From TrEMBL:
Gene Ontology BP, a term: positive regulation of B cell proliferation
Protein name stated in the entry: ADP-ribosyl cyclase/cyclic ADP-ribose hydrolase
Presence of the UniProt keyword DNA damage in the record: no
One Pfam family of this chain: Rib_hydrolayse
One Gene Ontology CC term in the entry: plasma membrane
Organism of provenance: Triplophysa tibetana
UniProt superkingdom: Eukaryota
InterPro entries: ADP-ribosyl_cyclase
Length: 168
């Protein structure tokens, strides 16, 4: 949903919207002990082994993406899952830790819910995010959270008039 939302908005980006992200999105690669070849198929255990070349590349790309995020930063989190701000996610474990408080003014969480979801901005995991931001180097970053229904996000995706304005 985030990719569809940013597709026609030059003012909003996901990592995959950057040049490096665009070039490597959807690719997997690996090598084999004793080989100088790079393989793009048959890479065993990419998901199971966190220290593989592929994962390291995306971790570093996420690190750089977060470190250069500036101004009013927004993140879409899924309100339909048990832990919208999951400590093991790339966003929590890499990006939040690498935000530069000198260039970020605010972080807005867009908590995307389906009509039947009851998750709110007072969810325990989001309170954990607030706690991370309010203590330590990110305490100058203004935190905001807004619940947005999935149908509204879809309307915004379809609305070509709201290219960079606030859709909600």
């Amino acid at each position: 949903m985030a990719h569809a939302f940013t597709k026609n908005r030059d003012c909003l980006l996901t990592l995959e919207d950057t040049l490096v992200g665009f070039m490597f999105d959807g690719l997997e690669w690996c090598s084999s002990n004793g080989s100088k070849e790079t393989f793009t198929t048959g890479c065993p255990g990419l998901r199971e082994c966190p220290n593989n070349t592929f994962g390291s590349f995306w971790s570093r790309a996420s690190d750089n993406f977060a470190a250069t995020a500036c101004g009013n930063v927004s993140v879409m989190l899924n309100g339909s899952i048990d832990t919208p701000f999951n400590p093991g996610s790339i966003f929590a474990s890499i990006e939040v830790k690498n935000f530069n408080p000198a260039i970020i003014e605010s972080l807005t969480v867009l908590l995307v819910n389906k009509e039947t979801d009851r998750t709110t901005c007072s969810h325990e995991s989001l309170e954990n995010l607030q706690s991370i931001l309010s203590s330590g180097p990110l305490k100058s970053v203004n935190y905001k959270c807004r619940v947005v229904h999935q149908a509204k996000v879809k309307d915004c995706i379809d609305d070509q008039k709201t290219l960079c304005g606030n859709c909600w």
